[in-house]
């Protein structure tokens, strides 16, 4: 039987204007990290990628990083 912590997949999203880089890490938090790839920055592409990860049967813990928007005065 798989332990509860092994059923968690940490998903990191690095959001850019036109793309999203995806990386995953197995629980526990010091588990192996892997870059999955880069997808288009639209919702359809993100939905497809997350559904693929969900199909593994693990609980996803998702975090994202996005650059702040700098505005000129």
Structural class: alpha+beta
Alpha-carbon Rg, integer = 14 Å
Low-confidence stretches: none
**Which term fits the overall shape?**
globular
String of helices and strands: EEEHE
The description of the largest β-sheet is: 4 strands, mixed
Strand content: 35-45%
The average pLDDT value, as a whole number, equals: 86
Strand order across the largest sheet = 3-2-1-4
Per DSSP, the total helix count is: 1
Number of strands: 4
Distance between the termini: 58 Å
| Helical residue percent band | 10-25%
Overview of the molecule:
This protein has 73 residues and is α+β, with helices and mostly antiparallel strands. Helix content is 16%, strand content 44%. It has a four-stranded mixed β-sheet, covered by helices on one side. A hairpin with a 3-residue loop joins strand 1 and strand 2. The model has no long low-confidence stretch (mean pLDDT 86).
In terms of topology, how is this protein built?
Elements: E1 8-15, E2 19-26, E3 33-40, H1 43-54, E4 59-66
Parallel strand pairs: 1-4
Antiparallel strand pairs: 1-2, 2-3
Task: Describe, in short, the structure shown.
The chain is α+β, with helices and mostly antiparallel strands and 73 residues long. The protein is built from one helix and four strands; from the N terminus they run βββαβ. It has a four-stranded mixed sheet with strand order 3-2-1-4, with helices on one face.
């Amino acid at each position: 039987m798989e332990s509860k912590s092994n059923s968690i997949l940490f998903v990191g999203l690095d959001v850019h204007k036109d793309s999203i880089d995806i990386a995953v890490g197995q629980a526990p938090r010091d588990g192996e990290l892997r870059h999955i790839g880069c997808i288009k920055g639209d919702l359809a592409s993100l939905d497809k990628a997350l559904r693929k990860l969900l199909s593994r049967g693990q609980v996803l813990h998702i975090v994202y990083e996005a650059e702040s928007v700098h505005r000129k005065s």
